[in-house]
Design goal:
- By secondary structure, the chain is an alpha/beta fold.
- The protein has ten helices and 15 strands.
- The chain starts with a helix and ends in an 11-residue tail after the last strand.
Length: 414
């Protein structure tokens, strides 16, 4: 009996020691970590505990992890932030992006591309936001943030986005202040009139709520002046989306007919105006993007404008978009910056887009395929590239939510 008791105590002590040795829930070994906020760009290990980043070091003991993931030859980054999506999905067939079939369910399209945070930009307004929060934001594993539309109904289409009397900055700002954890900005989109009142109402709401404003010009004829927008209406920190769109009859372009970026665009960058890609199904043309990038005008944030009209066309997903910028000549570090830390700063959420110790463990692991690839713009024109991001693994708050090739699972002989 005495020997059995001693053996039991020994086993308990050994078990306790083993548990103590396993300090972390997950250790990711040997990946090339790119964390722009913390200026990390080298092969390192990363450890997670209690859903948080617990350690980033050159050599973390594998035995300290309950699960060890070999990321050798891969890139480990903060979870990707897609700061332009439409995810207020629903079954109201005549309501477009607002509780309708054109928006998409966020969890179905985020994790598979390395995305852990999405920002819905204007699908809801102050009148519809409580429903959007209940129906989508609170029900998603993806972190869903929002820009509130200055139009009270949001992107319901038709007259709902054209009625200036329903663009109330006071009520919009009041709603934004009511949901400070969810609402990160104010949006104007799709207004077709040739006056500045909707823009100014959105900016006023931003002033009242102390939030940035994102402007998506509609289709005014003749086009409203981008220079006037950037220099007279927007504030430093406000955002212009779809900069590489090409609708010359109704929206001024950033690149002139001679292929030169217009000088006032660089002046706007210097002034502090931010530029959001917003690829979408109609807002990205190589004829605008390639000369812009080559001349040094690069969107601050790479974003998808995800909806049913973009995901099956030239846009596809964030990993594909990031690959497009590699094909245009950006290095990997610049692409990751514009997909993580830059958008976090634009939406004033410095807790996101980084791998700082203590931050929520939103992590993406990408392999980089090399081959002969073709990337399409919205018109079907192609740019060839030789590198392509593939999202291998995504962790949201320390939980594995996407694993393309089972790298988080132990090897087993069958």
């Amino acid at each position: 009996m005495k020997h059995k008791l001693s053996l039991f105590i020994l086993l308990q002590l050994l078990s306790a020691g083993f548990a103590a040795a396993q300090t972390y829930s997950i250790v990711i070994k040997g990946g090339h970590i790119i964390d722009p906020k913390n200026k990390i760009n080298e092969v390192m290990d990363l450890a997670i505990k209690d859903g948080k980043i617990a350690a980033v070091a050159r050599n973390i003991d594998a035995s300290s992890g309950n699960r060890v993931i070999n990321a050798a030859g891969m890139f480990v980054t903060p979870g990707i932030i897609d700061m332009h999506v439409h995810v207020y999905y629903g079954t109201k067939m005549d309501q477009g992006l607002m509780n309708g079939p054109t928006s998409v369910q966020p969890d179905a399209f985020s994790f598979r591309a390395g995305v852990t945070t999405v920002v819905d930009v204007g699908s809801s307004g102050w009148r519809s936001f409580p429903d959007f929060k209940r129906q989508t934001i609170d029900a998603s594993r993806t972190r869903v943030l929002a820009f509130l539309n200055i139009a009270a109904e949001g992107m319901r289409g038709g007259p709902f986005e054209q009625t200036t009397l329903d663009m109330n900055p006071v009520l919009t700002a009041r709603c934004a202040r009511q949901y400070p954890s969810d609402i990160v900005g104010i949006k104007l989109a799709h207004y077709n009139g040739h006056e500045w009142a909707p823009t100014d109402s959105a900016v006023r709401a931003g002033e009242l709520a102390k939030l940035p404003v994102m402007i998506d010009f509609g289709s005014a004829t003749p086009p409203l002046s981008l220079e006037e927008l950037f220099m007279k209406h927007l504030r430093p920190g406000d955002i212009f989306t779809h900069p590489y769109a090409y609708f010359p009859a109704s929206r001024e372009t950033v690149v002139d007919e001679d292929g030169k970026v217009k000088p006032f665009v660089f002046a706007a960058v210097k002034r502090g105006i931010k530029f959001d890609l917003g690829h979408g199904g109609g807002s990205f043309r190589w004829s605008q993007a390639i000369p812009s990038v080559r001349q040094g005008f690069v969107a601050d944030a790479i974003s998808s404008d995800l909806h049913t009209g973009s995901m099956n066309s030239g846009m596809k997903d964030m990993a594909n978009l990031m690959s497009k910028f590699l094909a245009m000549g950006l290095d990997i570090q610049e692409v990751i910056l514009r997909s993580t830390w830059n958008p976090a700063m634009i939406i004033n959420r410095p807790d996101l887009g980084n791998l700082s110790i203590g931050s929520e463990a939103d992590v993406a692991v990408f392999s980089l395929s090399r081959g002969d690839f073709g990337f399409l713009d919205i018109s079907g024109e192609k740019l060839k590239g030789d590198k392509k991001f593939v999202a291998e693994l995504t962790l949201r708050a320390g939980n594995i939510v996407w694993d393309l090739n089972g790298i988080s699972a132990p090897d087993k002989k069958w």
